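Risk register update: the risk that structure generation would not scale has been downgraded. Supporting records follow, first protein first.
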Amino acid sequence: MYRMLIVAPLTALLLTACVVAPAPYGSGLVVAPALPLIVELGAEPYYYQGGYHYYYNNDRWSYSHSRSGPWMDLPRSHYPKEIRRRGGADDRGRDQGRDRRERN
């Protein structure tokens, strides 16, 4: 009899720990498609492809369905191999005349 008094509450306690509730709608993990091998950015560090907005900042990529966010980190396996800048925004040729100035 005493054994039954111990087993019944213990069973009830263990069964309540096994309750599983479904996750709220929209909380599933979704990863954006990989970027192409070469991405050409304009004046702003945003890129749009396949319904996703991509944002490039400090050598990191983020993605979102909306340009206003929320932003998620893009897995490194989805990064492009090369990033190009349109409109001369990169640093190529920046120090071209420096050697001439130093010699004078």
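Supporting record for the second protein:
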Amino acid sequence: MVTIYSKNDCVQCKMTKRFLDTNHVEYREINLDEQPEFIDHVKNLGFNAAPVIQTATEAFSGFQPGKLKKLS
């Protein structure tokens, strides 16, 4: 399962979710503005900016269509 850690008013978050929706990739979204208890988890992964995309084998940050395409 793909998990996206997003924030409100985040353009790259919206682009990432749109890309995954268009490519029929199922994901769980955790909004860090609404669920701040996950912020430490994201920081422990080594990231400070949203979106953070986490899979069973990797995590990466930002809108990265090349990596996102591999999830479909």
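The radius of gyration is 11 Å. On this basis the risk owner (M.S.) recommends closing the item.
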